[in-house]
Specification:
The chain has 352 residues and is an alpha/beta fold. It has two domains: 182 residues, 3-Layer(aba) Sandwich (Rossmann fold), CATH 3.40.50; 151 residues, Glycogen Phosphorylase B (Rossmann fold, 3-Layer(aba) Sandwich), CATH 3.40.50.2000. It has 15 helices and 13 strands. A seven-stranded parallel sheet has the order 3-2-1-4-5-6-7. A six-stranded parallel sheet has the order 10-9-8-11-12-13, with helices on both faces. Helix 1 packs across helix 15. The longest helix has 19 residues.
Length: 352
Amino acid sequence: MTVVGARPQFIKAAVVSRALAACRSVVFQEEIIHTGQHYDPGMSEAFFAPLGLAEPAARLELGGGSHGQMTGRMLEALENEMSARRPDLVLVYGDTNSTLAGALAAAKLHLPVAHVESGLRSFNRAMPEEINRVLTDHLAAWLFCPTRAARDNLEKEGLTAGIHMVGDVMYDAALIFGEAARRESRIMEVLGLKEKSFFLVTVHRQENTDNAARLKGLLTAFERLAAAGKTLVWPVHPRLKDGLADYRGRQGLRLIDPLSYLDMARLEMEAGVILTDSGGVQKEAYFHKTPCVTLREETEWVETVAAGWNSLAGCDPDRIELAVAQAAPGGFIDEYGDGHSGEKIAQILAAH
């Protein structure tokens, strides 16, 4: 049973699902359970068909509410699904409430858990995602690490069994779907954009969207960049849709609805700079060789900073402006794998 609920998980699951289906040594029967954590069609349905993901066996529609409410409802519903379906293995991805609920429900039913993208740490316990990933790692039997830093983090926490260095399935996805994005996406033409003539913006983390001072800092920075003649293309997360009504139509700020994965990948390839608080987009920026400015004080993907592709600017307008001005291509990162991380995961699970 694969538990997903949010955009990054659909992308990762698409890679591993392809590898499970292609595995020759074991016949895997996979059932996808969609919690509905991303309940906006632009954040959910727009991803399944382009990525080749099978239709979910169940859609739980459990998005919305506080973290406790959402996780509690998911835990109850997933326990019911697992009790009825009795999977041999529960596969979870990343660091969302869906991840933790899936791991907890499985553990309480004595079902083994595999965690893809294990070992990442921001060391910021104020982030709900940090709590989710730490607890999930300590519940999992298989810990699939994308980087050496992730493996080291687990070992420092006393986790030594079941760790597998497999690389990053998001890199697999960039290779698999990158050419499709160039070939099929028409988002550049639809928006009337030219290559490297715009900045791409994404903001979704609660620490930014729900903190008035931090959000004001971001908006001030974006307005300054726009006033300096830059075009900022911003696919707006549903969490911010109502709060940004006054900014729609402002010169230089192109606020648009959430995009499909292929359209988003195309904009990441063509942007001059990406400004984001998303962990996945930080990596996608590197995969598509676009400099990135991270709108946080820390990152789980420390390799992108060390290699010079990414810089941490927080929400201070002056720091953001400086980071954008200094953004430039960096060096090669050798630890995200060879584009076969999904296959390695499938082989490891098949061996068990």
